Amino acid sequence: MGKTLAEKMIAGAAKVADVKPGDIVWVDVDRAMMDDILGPRIQIAEQLKELGKPVWDPEKVVIISDHYTPPASIQQAEIVKFTREWAALNGIRNYYEFEGPCHQVMAETGNVRPGMIVLGTDSHTCMGGALNAFASGVGSTEMLGILATGRTWLKVPESIRVIWEGSMSSNVMAKDLSLRTIGTIGHAGATYMSVEYQGNTIQKLSMDERMAVTNMAVEMGAKAGLMPFDNTTREYLESLGIDEYEPCFSDEDATFCRTYRFRTEELKPQVACPHEVDRVTDVDNVGDIKIQQAYLGSCTGGRLNDLKVAAQYLRGKKVAPGVRLLVSPASRNIWREAGRLGYLEVIAEAGGIIMAPTCGVCVGLHSGLIASGETCISSSNRNFLGRMGSRDGRIYLGSPLTVAASAAAGWIRAAEEQ
């Protein structure tokens, strides 16, 4: 019987010939990732010391200060300081600060590769599935065990197959594809399952676009979101100077618990309405929703292609009066490249505010909170009540192109199809 990507990756990490959904196996962890908000400071450092255990392999641990950078309070500054010093004390050379959201930094630094088991204390660690890795979020207790032993247990998930076929319209992006998938499956429809994306639409997506899709697999409750290994994966890794990895391929006769099929040419620009990610509809259905803020950024919507598309739309236009367009590139590398290519200048000329690469806006920690009664259209991954500031505010999720179009209009709008 054929095997899915998740089954093959977990079997390899468990060093067993075969696994099936529901099996519980011990696996070797290839990378353990922590950030500042859910890292050593949440009793992990203290409990590891109580156990008398050193970090099992400092070279396989990655710590990224991204939520509290730049710090907006003394408390945040102290947390970042603690995280920085703990990493140095424990010989963890893979420490990054002011580089951007952790998932993008993990990819750019080669800490996510095909076939790896990558576990992190952030739920959107599943973004690493775009690089053909089994990447998933874990809690602090699990991370403590991983840091002490380099191993953890995983229950082999059932796998859902999501097939997208066809070509996207000019005003549709991968974020729209992701939102439509989530709207169909539901916020808990894939709980503790692996979502395997297939079809010729997926094959045509760039790595930037693939990351936008797998990042949000957890919004369906999924343990992992997995993409096939192909030339796009290989070329991305080559651009980073990486040639050592073991790609994984699902079998043609693999068994999936469910299959969803979509036609991409039928897809229109989508939005997720407050306050649930699966409250998804066509942008044209939401009516006249006036906005005060538009956010282009985060580990879901601030990559180079996103900034390029926004700049192309905003060239020669202006952000509507009364609207704040905040732009936070997904990493410092992307910030530099977008600046070199002129994207940031175009967006700034239109009235956009260019910010540091950070998680602060997306999580409502600093650098752009919304006030009571305000509405924000965001390219980020969650629109929960109070997520970006006041609990009396409203967040709509859309593609970077929809965010740019809405910022220029002053209302939630889709870009015109070209």
Task: State the total count of DSSP E strands.
Answer: 18
| Unreliable residue stretches | none
* Biggest pleated sheet: 5 strands, parallel
How many separate domains make up the residues? Answer: 2
- CATH superfamily of the largest domain, please? Aconitase, domain 3
User: What is the CA-CA span between the terminal residues?
Assistant: 46 Å
- What proportion strand? 15-25%
Q: What is the averaged pLDDT score?
A: 97
**CATH top level of the largest domain?**
Alpha Beta
CATH topology label of the largest domain: Aconitase, domain 3
What is the rounded Rg? 20 Å
Share of helix among residues?
25-40%
In the CATH hierarchy, what is the architecture of the largest domain at level 2? 2-Layer Sandwich
- Sheet with the most strands: spatial strand order: 4-3-2-5-6
Q: How many individual helices?
A: 15
Q: How does the helix and strand content classify structurally?
A: alpha/beta
Q: Which geometry do the CA atoms define?
A: globular
Relevant terms:
418 residues; alpha/beta; Aconitase, domain 3; five-stranded parallel β-sheet; 19% strand; globular
